[in-house]
Amino acid sequence: MTLAWHLEQHDSALNWQAGLSLGFARSGERTQLAHTSHRGPLRIQRPFFPEGTDCPHLYILHPPGGLVSGDTLRLQADMQAGAQALLTTPSSGKCYRARDNGTFQVQHNRFTLAAGSSLEYLPQDTIAFEGCNAKFITRIDLNGDARCCAWDLLCLGRPAADEGFTHGAVEQRLDVWRDGRPIYIERNCFVGGEALLDARWGLAGAGVSGTWLATLQLDRQQLDDLRETFADYPQLALTQRNGLLIGRYLGHEAEHARNTFIRLWQHLRPLINGRAACSPRIWNT
């Protein structure tokens, strides 16, 4: 497998250009990490197998702990036919205040799934500090009956530190394609101080927002039952489109948002990929 990073050129003394490429293959009853390569401070711990050898759990590690101006992180995962894996992160991601020249901080994820494979990408939240200038780009390419569950949680500012998001910018892109055709395209752009952040037609003052996606098609009764099950979570809205179940979160507490998405995943995992819920151990630390 050849990996082309296509990283922008910046002064390496001022920023990190980091990338991680993972390739998973099925061998008998086992999913193997058949390929891994990295550049810069983006790595994994060894695979864990808390639920058997057919579905490893991997923790994506970024030792610097956050992104500053000019930093670029690229994560790529390729799932061969029949392979299964769960990816997560041990802690919140962070995007710090940008330099005055407005250089971007970028995280780019690209996941490609062959028919019969399954990938779960369940990271912790990302905190956008006051004054950051960030881009988050995720593309998921599904082939055949490939299955996927993924979520994205964003915290604008740090309310616990009495810090809002009055200036700065965050751009989000989330694309899901199946067999070469787009089935979900999402674009968000949050600019500190703009009306969108506080208006009722926007975030309505909520600093935590998120999208939860799974390749799952429910009938009308199942969807109604699911909404009833999560009726005590008014911050969560559920819908479906083009073979995807979509959850939207809008609230004020990152921990509550994470727990909501985790509970939704635990409840639906048997329907998504036929496996009982098995939370990564790192979530308990």
UniProtKB/TrEMBL annotation:
InterPro entries xrefs: UreD
Subcellular location: Cytoplasm
Family: Belongs to the UreD family.
Source species taxonomy: Bacteria, Pseudomonadati, Pseudomonadota, Gammaproteobacteria, Pseudomonadales
Gene Ontology terms, MF aspect: nickel cation binding
Self-association state and partner proteins as the record states: UreD, UreF and UreG form a complex that acts as a GTP-hydrolysis-dependent molecular chaperone, activating the urease apoprotein by helping to assemble the nickel containing metallocenter of UreC. The UreE protein probably delivers the nickel.
HAMAP family: UreD (MF_01384)
Protein name in UniProt: Urease accessory protein UreD
Protein keywords: Chaperone, Cytoplasm, Nickel insertion
Role description: Required for maturation of urease via the functional incorporation of the urease nickel metallocenter.
Record PANTHER family: UREASE ACCESSORY PROTEIN D
Gene coding for it: ureD
GO cellular component, one term: cytoplasm
Native source species: Halopseudomonas sabulinigri
Any Pfam family matching the protein: UreD
Keyword Cytoplasm: yes
